[in-house]
Amino acid sequence: MEILKPAVAGTLESSDAQVTVEPGSQGIELALTSSVMNQYGRQIKATVLETLKRLDVSNAKVTVIDKGALDCTLKARVECAVFRSCGASGGNIPWGGAVR
Amino acid sequence: MIPRPRPERFRLRRTMMFMNAQKPGLIKDAYIYGCDSIMLDLEDAVAENQKDAARFSLYHALKTIDYGDTEVIVRINGLDTPHWQEDIRVCVAGGADGIRIAKCESAQDVLTVEQAVETAEEEFAVEKGRTLLMAALESPKGILNAYEICSASERMFGVAISGGDFRKCMQTTPQRGGVDMLAARGQMLLAARAAGIQCFDTVFTDLDDEEGFQAEVLQNKAMGFDGKSLINPRQIRFVHQVFAPTEKEIIQAEKILLAYREQSAAGVGVFTVDGKMIDIAFIPGAKRTIQLAKACGMYEEGAL
Fold first, then answer.
1. In chain B, what are the domain boundaries?
2. Which of B25, B82, B90 sits opposite A95 (nearest CB)?
3. pTM for the whole thing?
């Protein structure tokens, strides 16, 4: 998917993450801050990148502010932000396909 | 993915706790509270501009979190919104045990949802008929059509009244003693029993009024409800206590079932237990008592 416009998903509440995606042209530029950076920083980054790859996003600026989200929450927020940026988050989501 | 057992149409449902599907902090460990069912909410708890986000969150929660024996039901948005079809797709794809139809007013509403569920089961290769349905009656029209709603589909396991919207329609507010919803609760119970499905009462929202809450739960039990919707885990324990059978009831039920086993093997249909006449009409009630007792941890080493 191509990131068409800036979009945000998620909140700054505990156990959540706020993910912002913006159009970019130099691959994935990921900026991550996390309340559990030392323990889980690498895993969070890997999950975000994997999710973007599954959605076939190859160029984007991605900002993640993590508040201790589980992997499943991170995925949900990244996906929602990407679909929102394409104006496609409201219906016909490929559940079990690119979203899994 | 966490494999879930095939949902049972009839199971213990004393407590159904509502949770906002959009809040990861709530849904990630919802199974620890010990309620019989959790109700992940895509409807009123989720702001209009977060409906999409709630579905992504719901999908991954369903696929990732092991809710164990806790039943997982999803409340979808009303049929008068642009959201319900995608809500159904995500419920079925994620493998929810059941769907709660909000603002249900007719058998046609149930059939409309059933059709969409069937289409989704096909799309996501989910076993046909797996996804159960229940209806929430939130208007006078829903209550008046309760029987046709309750008997509209083989997937229907229960019906619930939703007090907030219903009282608004009736121009009333919660009253001590429940006179505001007496007729509606009664009519819904009649319909549910006539159709052979379960019946659940509405939430009690004033968390500071413990006495009022307890009085309502006792009344629910006395009226014959199967359980109650809840908004806070601290309400669970009291409901489970009230809906648990007494020791006397358990002993009686055990005697009836043991005697029935013996007598029916000998070809006898009517017999006495402790001087009372017992026939086949007593058996379902006795079975339900034992099932409840087992679920409440009161019957672990019994003879049945």
1. 15-243, 247-295
2. B90
3. 0.91
